[in-house]
Specification:
heterodimer, A: alpha/beta, globular, B: mainly alpha, PH-domain like, eight-stranded mixed beta sheet, 33 helices, elongated, binds guanosine-5'-diphosphate, binds magnesium ion, P-loop_NTPase (chain A), lipoprotein (chain A), nucleotide-binding (chain A), hydrolase (chain A)
């Protein structure tokens, strides 16, 4: 089974943990407990294949920056989360993306921009256009989600898996085929 | 009177083209009633002249007049003046005599005189009326008047004078002419003579005229002379004035010139003043007192006074050098020279300061705390750098000067400082960490050895003495106080020895102790429950000790780092520009009550923006260089704690988590806060790993063959762990982390219980399950963990299900035949047979029933129960015999239930048959209790 290492990034309180837990356990976490770092594993079927997703839920605060490089290096796909109720959380993502690209040393990193808390339409500050615009600029996908109302939660992770598959088709199979050819 | 005359002229006579010449106000003398009227004399303006006398009456109402009667003057026959004195009456006789009475004598006389004149003038002699009783004087006045010189002609009377030029000669002129002609009677005859005489007269008159003119000429001349004189005077004065004017003009222009000059002078003066001022300023600004120069050159930086002098001198120098000179001024040679001097002074002093400071730094850095190591070995203290900072701080202003004056030297100094001081810090922190580790080992060793031999206890005690002096664990002290007393003599020597051993085999002992602890867990897990509880009680305090010590370590590190950071910013003036970065946190607190504050706080809680706590690069760099050791040592310490006992991850997670949360709330971007943040992730990973290991241990757990099951080791372990974790995590901010671990562990434990139970070869799985579930349930109930509430309910139902299953399975149908008999009865009833009719069926007749009942005598039943009890005892473990009782109780209930069921059916289907079982319910209860007691 192929493993996918996904990393969820974004400012504190935007709902990274809520999205992850909703995806993995199907529960909405009402309480806000600042995360240090949590990793989850979940087996899913994506693109007609069983996949093991290893999702790293990270801290949103600056205090833990020094460890970022490491998990950015290890991560294969990145969920960049902002809250549509906070402009600052939206603005913060640019730096994070820069860092990812720097660590990965490439422009093409499987990545999805996510505007969470879209159930709070009344408190919206970041418009859909803004999100779309930024995604276009970054040439990545974009989605608005709600961990609370279970909107698009699974889509973001599946989208990332798809992106990773597209960028790096499963290496094992190829090798098998190759070796098979050699034998013949 | 003239007013009336005027009014009459206007109203009466002008309209008819006549001129009023005389008027008298009269009253008719005849009648008694005086009728007031005016008697007027008028002439026509048109020619031929006619003269009228008219009587005019004034209308009673209004101002108008009315002509009553008009006579021609020709008609006047006699004028009777009735010439007595003061008589105002007179008569005028026209066709008849009319009597008049004037209002005054004067009026009468004037009118009569007028009449006389008119008659004279306009009536030929024959027609002239006779004037009787009129005083001669009246009639003559005008005649004599006419005899006067021609000059008086005009004065004849106002009336005459008003007549036109065109008039005929007046009577007087006539008279005059007549007289003149008569005087020159020859005139007619000798016109020539007349002309001559006239011309003679004329010339005489001319002469007289000229004469008089001549007479006045002298005066005129005189006048002219005077005028001439006056004129010349005026000219004189004018020229004088011109002169003056000229003079004044001159003065004015001079004044103007003077004014110009004065303003020039003033400007010049001002400019001079300015220049002087400017020069003064320049000189003042560029002047550096000799004292200052001297101070910069040779003041002793080792002395306070020298530092002070240098500071003010450096300030002055800086000021002088910073003076912004107007363009061009710097080209002044003096200025250039001065600047050169300054520059050399600056370089010289910068170098001097640099050298002095760097020696200071080197000295400080090389001060070895070795001597204090022994003293501090048991006290977990980091040497304070306060004295160093105190020694350096006086140079603070000079460093600021250096920063401005010579950036390279300043940067060099920074580097020298960090290089040297980091040596010191590295040493100190290493020592400190060693001490901390020793302390951890001591504590762990003490715990591990506590139940062991007396010697061991005494040796660890000796080691622990310094810390036990302030240790809060009094119970421990008490327990061991006796041994202290016993062994106090040998303490010192032991102490020395032990230290040596510790110094050399530290690493070894760490591992040994760690292993011992781990082994201890295992043993404890497998051992009986009571013993394990007792040890874990003790263990709890031990865990706290680790936390306490770990906290102490952080408490020591924190002020050291913060003091240094504060000192660096102050001493090297690092965050002059970025001082505002610290504000948001502070102001947040102050604004707490305002709405904005609340809103902001809410927002902060909701979305904790990754605020790039913009750390001043310089200070960050310096701190990193200075405390590079901290990060590695902290990581080592975390690893050490982990190695000592993986459970320590819990402690560290809580302790560091607390610090980090605090730092976050304070918006503390300090160096240490970041270090701890990284540490925390490390610890969290250790923690996750630990939990993972625990789970996989549970998942893989199995029980060796031939062993009693009872409470499974991993269940006991779970209980110990949860208890311990609760004591560590209670009220911690990291509660959510442990909660997550609990849930996963619980899930694993429940699964493992079922799995192990299923594998059990001898003991029924139900027993294993309900025993362990029961244990879990007790544990969860006493700990009251909110997040496990759901699991607790789950465990509870699993427990009771399994218990029930076991009871039914074990007890089965103790009265088998009866059971099957009644089952049959029930089937029959279910197929529609009425209860009362059941007894009539052959299979279920009363005889059959009685046969069945007979097979179960009270004795047999009791025997059966006894063997059942033995079986249960064999299955269930002896560890908790309350549970056995619970099971036995359940069995009793089940038995009684069956019994009652039979009785019920008997009374329904076989009424009045008096059939009963061989034994009563009371018998049953007695059997059960007696069996429980005797066993
Ligand atoms: N209304 C709403 N609230 C959300 C949503 N997602 C998360 N939250 C809340 O936002 C707060 C922070 O969520 P959390 O996942 O802990 O944020 P993290 O710091 O990014 O991990 C919590 O109180 C959540 O209940 C969402 O989709 N809608
Ligand atoms: Mg989170």
């Amino acid at each position: 089974m192929r493993e996918y290492k996904l990393v969820v990034l974004g400012s504190g309180g935007v709902g990274k943990s809520a999205l992850t837990v909703q995806f993995v356990q199907g529960i909405f976490v009402e309480k806000y407990d600042p995360t240090i770092e949590d990793s989850y594993r979940k087996q899913v079927e994506a693109e007609n294949q069983q996949c093991m997703l290893e999702i790293l839920d990270t801290a949103g605060t600056e205090q833990f920056t020094a460890m970022r490089d490491l998990y950015m290096k290890n991560g294969q796909g990145f969920v960049l989360v902002y809250s549509i109720t906070s402009q600052a959380s939206f603005n913060d993502l640019a730096d994070l993306r820069e860092q990812i690209l720097r660590v990965k040393d490439t422009d093409d990193v499987p990545m999805i921009l996510v505007g969470n808390k879209c159930d709070l339409e009344d408190e919206r500050i970041v418009s859909k256009e803004q999100g779309e615009q930024l995604a276009k600029q970054w040439r990545c996908s974009w989605m608005e989600t709600s961990a609370k109302s279970k909107i698009n939660v699974e889509c973001i992770f599946f989208d990332l898996v798809r992106q990773i598959n597209r960028k790096t088709p499963e290496p094992k199979k190829k090798r098998k085929k190759n070796s098979g050819c050699n034998l013949l | 009177m003239s007013a009336i005359k005027h009014a009459l002229q206007r109203d009466v006579f002008t309209p008819i083209g006549e001129r009023l010449l005389g008027v008298v106000h009269t009253a008719k003398a005849s009648g008694k009633k005086k009728k007031s009227s005016f008697l007027c004399a008028s002439v026509t303006i048109e020619r031929p002249v006619a003269v009228y006398i008219s009587k005019i009456k004034k209308q009673e109402k209004g101002e108008s007049y009315k002509k009553q009667k008009v006579w021609q003057l020709k008609e006047l026959k006699v004028v009777n003046g009735k010439e007595d004195k003061d008589n105002t009456e007179f008569d005028l006789q026209f066709e008849k005599n009319f009597k008049w009475s004037a209002t005054s004598v004067a009026e009468k006389q004037t009118f009569l005189s007028c009449l006389w004149k008119l008659c004279h003038r306009y009536l030929p002699r024959p027609q002239k009326p006779a004037f009787v009783n009129v005083s001669q004087s009246l009639l003559e006045v005008s005649v004599t008047g006419s005899e006067d010189s021609r000059g008086n002609v005009a004065a004849v009377g106002p009336d005459e004078d008003a007549l036109e030029d065109y008039q005929a000669l007046t009577e007087q002129e006539e008279l005059d002419l007549e007289k003149m002609i008569s005087e020159c009677e020859y005139a007619i005859s000798d016109a020539e003579a007349f002309a001559t005489s006239l011309s003679k007269d004329l010339s005489v008159l001319d002469g007289q005229n000229i004469h008089s003119i001549m007479g006045s000429e002298a005066q005129v001349n005189e006048l002219m002379l005077l005028l001439d004189n006056a004129l010349s005077e005026v000219i004189n004065i004018e020229s004088r004035l011109d002169e003056y004017d000229l003079m004044v003009g001159n003065i004015a222009s001079q004044m103007g010139q003077m004014k110009n000059q004065e303003s020039f002078i003033q400007i010049t003066n001002k400019n001079h003043g300015r220049l002087l001022e400017e020069l003064d300023k320049l000189v003042m600004q560029l002047d550096l007192s000799k004292g200052h120069i001297k101070a910069l050159r040779e003041a002793d930086l080792g002395k306070d006074s020298g530092i002070e002098a240098c500071t003010s001198a450096a300030d002055a120098l800086q000021q002088a050098m910073e003076v912004e000179l107007p363009i061009g001024l710097s080209k002044l040679q003096a200025v250039a020279e001065q600047q050169k001097l300054f520059d050399s002074l600056r370089q010289m002093f910068a170098k001097r300061l640099h050298d002095h400071m760097s020696t200071l730094f080197v000295k400080q850095g090389s001060e070895h705390p070795g001597s204090s190591l022994a003293r501090q070995s048991s006290n977990l203290l980091l040497p304070k750098h306060f004295p160093y900072h105190r020694d350096l701080l006086p140079f603070k202003d000079l460093i600021l000067w250096l920063k401005l004056a010579d950036k390279t030297k300043y940067i060099q100094l920074c580097t020298i400082y960090t290089k040297n001081l980091s040596k010191l810090y590295t040493q100190e922190i290493k020592d400190f960490m060693t001490t901390a580790k020793q302390r951890f080992i001591q504590e762990a060793a003490l715990d591990g050895d506590v139940g062991a031999a007396a010697l061991k206890a005494s040796s660890s005690l000796t080691l622990n003495i310094p810390s036990s002096e302030k240790s809060p664990h009094k119970s421990l002290n008490k327990k061991l106080s006796s041994s202290i007393r016993n062994l106090s003599g040998s303490q010192k020597s032991l102490n020395k020895e032990k230290k040596k051993v510790f110094g050399s085999t530290q690493n070894l002992s760490v591992k040994a102790v760690g292993k011992k602890l781990k082994f201890g867990h295992k043993k404890r897990g497998l051992a009986g429950s009571r013993e394990s509880l007792a040890t874990s009680d003790f263990e709890l305090s031990d865990r706290h000790k680790f936390s306490t010590t770990f906290r102490e370590v952080l408490n020591e590190l924190e002020p050291t780092c913060q003091d240094e950071e504060r000192f660096l910013t102050k001493f090297f003036h690092l965050n002059v520009e970025s001082s505002d970065t610290m504000l948001p946190g502070g102001s947040d607190d102050e604004e707490d009550d305002t709405e904005v504050g609340i809103h902001r706080r809410r927002k902060y809680q909701e979305v904790q923006v990754t605020k790039e706590i913009r750390q001043d690069d310089a200070i960050w760099r310096m701190m990193t260089e200075l405390f590079s050791i901290v990060e590695s040592q902290l990581t080592l310490l975390v690893a050490f704690g982990e190695e000592l006992d993986p459970l320590n991850s819990l402690n560290m997670l809580v302790v560091i988590g607390q610090r980090v949360t605090q730092a976050q709330q304070d918006n503390d971007g300090s160096f240490l806060a970041k270090m701890l943040g990284n540490c925390l992730i490390e610890v969290k990973r250790n923690f996750d790993n630990f939990i993972k290991l625990k789970i996989s241990a549970v998942e893989e757990a199995h029980v060796g063959k031939g062993k009693k099951y009872g409470i499974l080791p991993f269940v006991q372990d779970f209980e110990d762990f949860v208890e311990l974790a609760e004591s560590i995590f209670r009220d911690s901010e990291r509660r959510s982390d442990i909660d997550k671990a609990y849930k996963e562990l619980t899930k694993a434990v429940l699964a493992a219980i079922d799995r192990v139970a299923a594998d059990s070869p001898k003991i029924p799985p139900e027993v294993v399950k309900f025993e362990n579930y029961h244990h879990l349930l007790n544990c969860l109930s006493s700990l009251k963990i909110a997040c496990l509430e759901q699991d607790k309910r789950d465990v509870k139902s699993r427990y009771s299900d399994n218990l029930q299953n076991f009871v039914t399975a074990m007890l089965g149908r103790p009265l088998e035949k009866l059971s099957s008999f009644f089952e049959g009865v029930e089937q029959v009833m279910a197929s529609g047979v009425r209860a009362e009719e059941v007894g009539f069926q052959l299979k279920f007749s009363k005889q059959e029933l009685r046969k069945c009942i007979k097979e179960y005598s009270g004795k047999d039943v009791k025997k059966g129960l006894e063997s059942l009890y033995h079986k249960i005892v064999k299955y269930t473990t002896e560890y908790d015999n309350r549970l056995l009782q619970v099971v036995w109780q359940h069995m009793q209930e089940e038995f009684v239930r069956q019994y009652k069921h039979f009785e019920d059916l008997i009374s329904k289907c076989y009424p009045d048959s008096e059939i009963k079982l061989e034994f009563t319910i009371e018998n049953v209860l007695l059997y059960f209790s007696s069996i429980a007691i005797t066993q």
